[in-house]
Design goal:
single chain, 341 residues, alpha/beta, Purple Acid Phosphatase, chain A, domain 2, 8-stranded mixed sheet, 6-stranded mixed sheet, binds fe (ii) ion
Length: 341
Amino acid sequence: MKRRSFLKGAAFVAAGAAASPLFKACSTPSKKADLSVAGRFSYGPDGKFTLLQFTDTHYIASDPRSERALKCVQEALEGVKPDLVIHTGDILFGKPDIPSALEILQPLAGSGIPWAVALGNHDSQFGSSREDMFRAIRSLPGCINLEPKEGVYGCSNDVITLSGNGLEHVFYLFDSMDAVVLKGEEEIHCYDYIRHNQIAWYRDHSRHFTSKAGHPVPSIAFFHIPLCEIQEGLTAGTILAGNNGEPPCPSRLNSGLLAQFREMGDVRAIVTGHDHDCDYVLDYGQMYYIYGRYSGCDTVYNHLGLSGCRVFEFTRGEPGFRTWVRLYGGEIQQPLTLSRS
Ligand SMILES: [Fe+2]
């Protein structure tokens, strides 16, 4: 199924979701900064830390078209043996939705490796509310996501830290939600956008870490739907490596998250999924826009060939990182060292 055709369905779902308890609960910003951290990590004895990203597994339990996604996840975990896994959403793509999510995440739950999710637009489109889906995922062993924060839009907003010689890296997970319908003279239907209270939540953490470290701490943001600035980046920036198989499909609404990243001076890379035929690294405006490698199956469109994952490797004392795509079976593609500080 092509993306343009399933966006319509997504917008319809979001129109219903706009009246849900989740949206009401998250409409008022918290007065007190929530500085909770989902996971605090340190380097291994070799001075390395490996983070594996899965994205867009689009799993449907008991559907034979899903088989290769499950194999992909299992094989990557065994092949990479990461210290942390982040799944950037579209975990499932059909009913039964919670059993589908739990089944594709089972290899993570049984691996003994800590993991977290940043939910995708499809993860609450098949019956269960986003809150119920997130609660079910959090119940699995190894999941480090914290409970949804009061006053912060969405569910999967979390912070993870990596320390060596002091705090060296921060990973921000944002919930980029599903889709949105804004009423007015001209009704706007589009993918959702990162809300003001999510940005405030990020700024609270960023300010705290900068104050503690005495400088902005190199950070990476993970979420499902790319920012709209990536479109300009494709004409004005440089693709350092990877496949560019389709135009990006961000929200039509720009709430200024990129400006906040630049203003706070810590986030150097934005890592997303969502556009299945892209797995590139784009360098534009002092920011790396990085797509994960499609980790899914044949329940939706995909034209890259083998599924896989993206790996990030951090070295103690270094502000940058290495990243590459790993395909099912072990082939490495696009090895890059991204060292902008
Ligand atoms: Fe997807």
